[in-house]
Amino acid sequence: MQTKELIRRVEEMALPLCEQAGVTLWDVEFEKEGGQYMLTITIDRDGGVDIDHCEQISRAIDPMLDAKDFDSLPPYTLCVSSAGLERRLKKPEHFAKYIGETVEVKFYRAIDGAKIVEGKLMGYDNGNVTVEVGGQTVVYEAADVASVRLTVQF
């Protein structure tokens, strides 16, 4: 099974489980970390996610992943976790929710001498990220952006 297909199927299974648990499905990833594969289901909730929410989703989806359809997967570890305060923004709805918030943008290669910038998220369009940095509004092209995360201001 291709990774994109796996993620789509896990999202379809997890979505109703998350709704029943009173949380939202933030993201699903299947990645090799070190020598081991990780299937990570990230959840969110206004007011925060606790260990009981993660356990509820994990216990509900684990037997579903034992179905014959998933036999072709390499051995993996299932992880259900909170999106966290410094969450990664990946989907258009993530960006829309946090317009006006401070984000950290990492680049694949240095842009104007920097591999990371921090600023106020002003917009998102087809992968292009608009950030106010040092009083200037800058649009970073999707091909240059490695990741975008919220930052916590203390």
Mean pLDDT: 93
How is the CATH topology of the largest domain named? GMP Synthetase, Chain A, domain 3
Number of strands: 8
Number of helices: 3
Instruction: Write the CATH architecture name of the largest domain.
Output: 2-Layer Sandwich
Q: What is the level 1 CATH name of the largest domain?
A: Alpha Beta
CATH superfamily caption of the largest domain: RimP-like superfamily, N-terminal
Radius of gyration: 17 Å
Order of helices and strands: HEEHEHEEEEE
Helix content: 25-40%
Morphology: globular
Strand content: 35-45%
- Structural class, please? alpha+beta
Q: In the residues, how many domains can be counted?
A: 2
Could you give a short account of the major beta sheet?
A: 5 strands, antiparallel
Report how far apart the termini are.
44 Å
Given as residue ranges, the uncertain stretches (5+ residues, pLDDT < 50) are none
Question: Order of strands in the sheet with the most strands?
Answer: 7-6-5-4-8
Describe this structure in words.
The protein is α+β, with helices and mostly antiparallel strands. The protein folds into 2 domains: about 5-80, GMP Synthetase, Chain A, domain 3; about 90-150, Roll (SH3 type barrels), CATH 2.30.30. Helix content is about 25%, strand content about 40%. The protein contains 3 helices and 8 strands; from the N terminus they run H-E-E-H-E-H-E-E-E-E-E. The strands form 2 sheets. Strands 7-6-5-4-8 form a 5-stranded antiparallel beta sheet. It starts with a helix and ends with a strand. The model has no long low-confidence stretch (mean pLDDT about 95).
